[in-house]
Amino acid sequence: MRNAPLRFAAAALWPLSIWTSFSHLKEHPADDYVERTTPIVVCAVAFWIAFLTFVGLSVMLQDHLATVAQDDAQVLVRVSDRRWRPFADVLLYFLPAIYLTGLWLFSSRAERFSEEAAHKA
Predict the structure, then answer these.
(1) CA-CA 20 to 30 A from 116: which of 28, 45, 65, 66?
(2) For 83-103, how does the pLDDT look when each residue is reduced to its tens digit (9 = 90+)?
(3) Are 49 and 114 spatial neighbours (Cβ–Cβ below 8 Å)?
């Protein structure tokens, strides 16, 4: 049995640790392990899509410096593209919601599975 810090680390890193669940599917052909794992995998896919999109938008939203020639002198101008700011703001709202939903699903699955395993033994 894993101790509490390892269980917490696995739960906190659920977007990464859920992928190892696929190696256990053959061990649980008759129970609802797959039914409990599928929603977490969907949350993980949604989390990684949203996270990578947010990172991409954050890079696009950074201000860029440009030099402009003006009256025989060069002026440093800050150029920014703010079209994508609303999308980044929405993703910033949904990323924690997806993470917390996946954390809750992952934790409840681990607790329920350990309880069922204890009852079968």
Answers:
(1) 45
(2) 788 888 899 999 999 999 998
(3) no
d(Cα 69, Cα 8) in Å, to the nearest integer? 57
Question: Does residue 68 surpass a pLDDT of 90?
Answer: no
Phi-psi group of 72: left, alpha or beta (phi > 0 → left; psi -120 to 50 → alpha; rest → beta) = left
Residue type, 23: S
Question: CA 4 to CA 51: how far, in whole Å?
Answer: 28
* Dihedral sign (CA 49, 52, 58, 59): negative
Quote the pTM value: 0.71
Check pLDDT > 80 for residue 118: no
Output the CA torsion sign for 110, 53, 60, 83: negative
- CA 93 to centroid of chain Cα atoms: 13
Tens digits of per-residue pLDDT, 23-62? 766 766 666 666 777 888 889 999 999 999 999 888 877 7
**Could you tell me the end-to-end alpha-carbon distance of the chain, in angstroms, rounded to an integer?**
14
